[in-house]
Task: structure prediction
Amino acid sequence: MGNITKDSSFDSNKIYCHKIIYKYDSNGKLTEEEFYNFKGIPTKYIYKYDYKGDIIPRYIRKEPLDYYSIEKIIDKYDERGNILRLHYYWDNHEKLATSVYYKYDANNNLIEESVYKGDGNCNLIYYTNDDRGNWIKKIDKSYNKKDIFQKATIYKRIIEYHE
Result:
């Protein structure tokens, strides 16, 4: 079974949302993600690992670095090694931007994500996965800071696998 090399997503109106290109080292560990938003603007994430092969959370770096640099800190895993909670901080760890909580099924597939933003808004995201455990449909429900439902967006994802 190969690693994902590229994925693209589209909303329920078949409008392009994003594309991600993944790069791996010779051991199959993710080393880089190139994320292109709906305008085609790229952001590169570089990943590093410690001697045990675990990701070093503080070394996940966003490029290009700019005045609103964000740092991603993974701070809680379950007994199976899945990320349960992570936080994004603005400006060198000075201000919490977003907290994200994850839920997985018995096969370690991500099935739910709760995103709490610094402005008080939140998103509840539900995933449908393919037979390889990668999401192919995502329902994103947005709520305002008073927990009032705002909208739901359905994304469908097309994945290319390298065999």
Remarks:
- The CA atoms of residues 80 and 129 lie 19 Å apart.
- The first strand starts at residue 4 and ends at 11.
